[in-house]
Design brief:
mainly alpha; 5 helices
Amino acid sequence: MNVPGTVVRERLLLAAAELFARKGYAATTVREIVAAASVTKPVLYYYFRNKEGIYLELMKDSLAKFEALLDSTRVETGKASEKILKLCD
């Protein structure tokens, strides 16, 4: 079960990810992020300090997932070419 703060934080992350993917980081405003997440600017500032903070959090999560995928590939046996193909899948 999610606590209310976690739900709000996740809404902000999802809204920002969608907007950054669609419009790009530079073209996305804090106003658009908070509107898409149905929160106020102070809420975003409480959880992430600014737009860069939310972007860095998104990148941190993505990098952690990628590193976990690489780690799982490293421990597999087999030819390098097979491991690379499996990683790409």
